[in-house]
Amino acid sequence: MATSAFKRLPGFRDFPPEDLALRSHIVETWRRVSKRYGLLEYDGPPLESLDLYVEKSGGEIVGQLYSFTDKGDREVALRPEMTPSLARILGDRSRAMSKPIRWFSVPQLFRYERQQRGRLREHFQWNVDIVGEEDVAADAEVLAVAIDGLREFGLTADHFRARVSDRRLLSALMKAFGVEENALAVAFGVIDKLERVPRETSLEALVKDVGLEISRADALLEIFDAVSLEGLPEDIIKSGEVSTALARVQTYLGALEAMGLREYVEIDLRIVRGLAYYTGIVFELFDTGRDLRAICGGGRYDRLLELVGGEPLPAVGFGMGDVVLGELLADSGLIPEFDRSIDYFIVTVSSDERAEALRIAHALRENGRSVAYPLRDQSLAKQLKAAVREGAGQVLIIGPDELARGCVTLREMESGVEHELPVSELE
Ligand code: HAM
To answer: Hey, whose CA ends up nearest to atom 20 of ligand 1?
Structure first.
């Protein structure tokens, strides 16, 4: 058997119609929710200067870049995420824009990742960002979009949760435990890995790499074991920076409560986020069964726009990928059946009716109806089989006798009921 000599690259997908239908369902749902929140859609180029990502996105993404030197000797990269492009695009024009800026986009992104469940080398990612507002109301608004983005598919709090933390709260806690300012990034790295490595390893890293005494390191880890804010020691809560950060998180939760979305939100201080540019509240959405990778991740990044040379503007946003979401929808039985239906299929008894069939087909299409017919002469039986295959709701049978009377026969495919009707009525 002959097979194609060309194989699809690993980590990339083809989208035959039944698969494209799911992608379109996902993207259309995201667009609908975006519009409800007054977000405007934008896009940018899939290829950017390499240095837009180096240092801004952080080590992990930079190691996964599809980068090369182009024919003009420029170092370029396929976009692995949208946020640096957004910062660059706004850098050129934000001064002239009224704030806050509420934008969304659904770019295809490229990361040279190790292929595994939920991770491919390309994916489509819904990006929602609010730029120019530092109030925590913007953080709450952004998380509400993400939650509603999933609810719109029929997912509920039984299916997913948002796990929220705050890098400012984390910094304040760390400092209260004696972590020096210059060791904070390393300490964040330890917290980020808590769920993937044994406790002993984390303890050792806090002592050796962060410079904490073992008893302090142990007490710090206990805070993260507890996950919630309830277990925080009294003396720590009273420290100025911690209490400011805590108050901000409480206001945030209050806003989500007022929207009726509080049940979707859990505080989990172990959420740090891998990307380097986050400065405040950060979050990730996960399936409740915790079988899948993160569906969505985001947070506040108040310094990125300035870093890429733009107006210094606070910003908050998220990215939600189509891959993990598709898996969750499949696991939850929420993928709509593939619908390939058309309104009419036209069947002709002989080739003498062909011209009339074409005329009628075109008139119906002019009226916005979907119409198909056989592209060569075929037996009536074959044509009717094709009508079923095409998912036609109604079949128009054009024969010489009916046509002589100015009529066609219309068969309702579901009931099998047939009746004659004047061609003029159809048009
Ligand atoms: P991220 O956490 O790198 O954030 O990606 C966000 C989401 O995109 C992930 O939760 C996941 O669903 C999906 N995703 C990421 N990489 C892959 C992959 N290789 N295959 C399939 N899906 C993937 C960002 O990209 C930030 N720029 C989001 C953001 C926007 N923050 C602020 N604004």
So the answer is: 119
